[in-house]
Amino acid sequence: MTLAAALSDVRELERSLGDEFAGRLRYDFSDDHEVRIDGFAFPDGWQNRSGGRYGSILIELPETYPEHPPRVFVSDDMRYEGSRPVQMAPGRVDAPADWAAFDLFSDPDSWDASAHSLVTVFERLQAVLESPDGFDEVQN
């Protein structure tokens, strides 16, 4: 992983979230190569076990980032209209939160290392969260 590229991408993501984002973005590239967004307001139709729309997002950068896409996880207790969309599967346990993998880049050709960044990842995630049933249209 190119640390300079990853840090640049995190700063770009922070700017793209804008002032209206009330959650918290944090990252750790020393051990885990992760970017975490807490307090993210999921779109209408999404709820956690408590009935709220707020949850967390975890973006895990591979050692080969940006040549290969990050893996994306969302809070495991988030549901869309009461169930898991097909893109969401149990992924990993990371105290104190349980995470479900969210498949955004299953097609190897869907990631372009020269053009995509963490902002691309977040924009794609937002599009899929807003329309889980239209995932194939978002991906292509």
Automatic annotation (TrEMBL):
<feature type="domain" description="UBC core">
    <location>
        <begin position="1"/>
        <end position="140"/>
    </location>
</feature>
<dbReference type="InterPro" id="IPR016135">
    <property type="entry name" value="UBQ-conjugating_enzyme/RWD"/>
</dbReference>
<protein>
    <recommendedName>
        <fullName>UBC core domain-containing protein</fullName>
    </recommendedName>
</protein>
<dbReference type="InterPro" id="IPR000608">
    <property type="entry name" value="UBC"/>
</dbReference>
